[in-house]
Each structure stands twice: as structure tokens, then as C-alpha cells.
Amino acid sequence: MDYAIALAVFALAVALVVIGPLRHGQQGEAAEEARREDLEAAKEAKYREIRDAELDHRMGKLSDEDFRTTDRELRSQALEILRALDELDSGQAETRR
């Protein structure tokens, strides 16, 4: 009887050790997917801001100098978002190998 209980406890411990990394892998994938969704949403919002600034400039709401400054800043921020997406993609590609 004691032997059976010890064997069951040992089997449970082994199962937890084996399943642990698998569970953490799934959580990591979910976090990565959430990050991707956030970055994609930020990218679309930044593109929308760039288009809005271009429209404001064409309508005369922004001077040439203000438009250049705003456009440069918005495009710089968009590039940062795109780089973060690329890093995420390259990290996934390495994980799959």
C-alpha cells in the first residue's frame, strides 16, 4: 500500500515536471500574439495619423514647416512599430526552427 502511494506521488511529480514547460510555452505564445495584435493596432493608428496630417496640410490647416515636423515624427514612430513587428517575426522564425 505504501509502495503504491509513493509510486503515485512520484508519477504525479514526473507529470508536473514534464507538463510544466509545455504550459509555459502556450502562455508565451499567447503573450506574443497579444503583443502582435497591439503592435498591429498601433501601426494602423499611426498610418491613420499620417494620413490625417497629410489631409490637414492639403487643406491648409498645417503650414509646410509644421507638416514636415509632424510627418517626420509620425513616420519615425511608425518605423519603430514596424521594427518591433519585424523583431517579433524574426523571433518566431527562430523559435520554429
Can you walk through the features of this model?
This protein is mainly α and 97 residues long. It has one domain. 93% of the residues lie in helices and 0% in strands. It has 2 helices and no strands. The mean pLDDT is 84.
Characteristics of this structure?
mainly alpha, 97 residues, 2 helices
Summarize the structure.
This protein is mainly α and 97 residues long. 93% of the residues lie in helices and 0% in strands. The protein has one domain.
Number of helices: 2
* Span between termini: 47 Å
What does the largest sheet look like?
none
Shape: rod-shaped
Report the average pLDDT across residues.
84
As a percent range, the share of strand residues is under 5%
What share of residues is helical? over 70%
As a whole number of angstroms, the C-alpha radius of gyration is: 25 Å
In N-to-C order, the SSE pattern is: HH
The total strand number stands at: 0
Q: What's the SSE blueprint?
A:
Blueprint: H1 2-58, H2 64-96
Helix pairs in contact: 1-2
